[in-house]
């Protein structure tokens, strides 16, 4: 099977296939990518790896080198999905030129199909600069975790009239600037619906209701790796319990000397 392309993803919105939403999950490692890839349209190497993999308190400390290392692993582990890599905090906001220098490294050193960056109207010029120079960009608006210090937390956005208008303006601005799609995170259903019908590029929701052209979740959230998750997460497995039970069994067998057993031992052939 040939790998999907960014134009194919973008066209899905016009092919009367909005009844078949786009499927996206995060992936950070090669093996995880191998397992998720056949079921997805897009794999996102999210900067959420900060909390999920590195135990960091927010996404702000993530570096370009971290994103490149994980991005390359996910590209190596997948052959079907479009792989997108998050631009980390501080690597793109200063100017379109800074964004191009960072994004071109991500593209060249990982082999991914495009980048995602946070911000609406304020990033429109940068999105235009990158897309005109061959770098597909997915925007990320609404709840933008890199702006946690400015937003004052991770609560849902678009509750007030002003915020609602601001986020709708962001959606229109990034679409006009040439983004091939956008993630809309943590917004009221009504706003997600208006955004999705107002722009001609795919809108991928997370905590943004079913009124979007697709959905994304952090894979570890969906797999039940964490006790506490946001309200919008649905768990499809309980890996935390599976892993704890496996570790408990292993530890018990090592301690009572039933592991390694006869099947796991090298001995001369008889
Ligand atoms: O970093 C991430 O995982 C993301 C998705 C949740 C959209 O940006
Ligand atoms: Na992210």
From TrEMBL:
Family, as annotated: Belongs to the PanB family.
Chain positions recorded as Mg(2+) binding sites: 47, 86, 118
Catalytic activity: (6R)-5,10-methylene-5,6,7,8-tetrahydrofolate + 3-methyl-2-oxobutanoate + H2O = 2-dehydropantoate + (6S)-5,6,7,8-tetrahydrofolate
Annotated pathway: Cofactor biosynthesis; (R)-pantothenate biosynthesis; (R)-pantoate from 3-methyl-2-oxobutanoate: step 1/2
Superkingdom field: Bacteria
Subcellular location as annotated: Cytoplasm
Name listed for the protein in its UniProt record: 3-methyl-2-oxobutanoate hydroxymethyltransferase
Pfam families referenced in this protein's UniProt entry, alphabetically: Pantoate_transf
Enzyme class: transferase
Keywords for the protein's UniProt record, in alphabetical order: Cytoplasm, Magnesium, Metal-binding, Methyltransferase, Pantothenate biosynthesis, Transferase
GO molecular function: 3-methyl-2-oxobutanoate hydroxymethyltransferase activity; magnesium ion binding; methyltransferase activity
Required cofactor(s): Mg(2+)
Biological role stated in the UniProt entry: Catalyzes the reversible reaction in which hydroxymethyl group from 5,10-methylenetetrahydrofolate is transferred onto alpha-ketoisovalerate to form ketopantoate.
Co-factor binding comment: Binds 1 Mg(2+) ion per subunit.
Database matches in HAMAP family: PanB (MF_00156)
Keyword Transferase part of the UniProt annotation: yes
SUPFAM superfamilies: Phosphoenolpyruvate/pyruvate domain (SSF51621)
Chief location: cytoplasm
Listed GO CC annotations: cytoplasm
Organism: Sphingobium scionense
UniProt binding sites for 3-methyl-2-oxobutanoate: 47-48, 86, 116
EC number: 2.1.2.11
């Amino acid at each position: 099977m040939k790998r999907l392309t960014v134009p194919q993803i973008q066209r899905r919105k016009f092919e009367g296939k909005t009844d078949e939403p786009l499927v996206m999950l995060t992936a950070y490692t090669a093996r995880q990518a191998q397992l998720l890839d056949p079921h997805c349209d897009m794999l996102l190497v999210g900067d959420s790896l900060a909390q999920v993999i590195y135990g960091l308190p927010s996404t702000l400390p993530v570096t370009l080198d971290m994103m490149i290392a994980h991005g390359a692993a996910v590209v190596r582990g997948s052959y079907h999905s479009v792989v997108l890599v998050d631009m980390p905090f501080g690597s793109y906001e200063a100017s379109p030129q800074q964004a191009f220098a960072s994004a071109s490294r991500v593209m060249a050193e990982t082999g991914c199909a495009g980048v995602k960056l946070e911000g609406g109207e304020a990033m429109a010029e940068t999105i235009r600069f990158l897309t005109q120079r061959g770098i597909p960009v997915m925007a990320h608006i609404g709840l933008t975790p890199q702006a946690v210090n400015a937003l004052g937390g991770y609560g849902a956005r678009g509750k007030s009239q002003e915020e609602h208008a601001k986020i709708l303006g962001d959606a229109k601005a990034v679409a006009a600037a040439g983004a091939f799609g956008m993630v809309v995170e943590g917004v009221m259903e009504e706003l997600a619906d208006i955004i999705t019908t107002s722009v001609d590029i795919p809108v991928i929701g997370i905590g943004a209701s079913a009124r979007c052209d697709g959905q994304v979740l952090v894979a570890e959230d969906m797999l039940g790796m964490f006790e506490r998750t946001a309200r919008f997460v649905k768990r499809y497995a309980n890996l935390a319990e599976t892993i704890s039970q496996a570790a408990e069994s292993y530890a018990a067998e090592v301690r009572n000397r039933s592991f390694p057993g006869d099947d796991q031992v090298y001995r001369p052939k008889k």
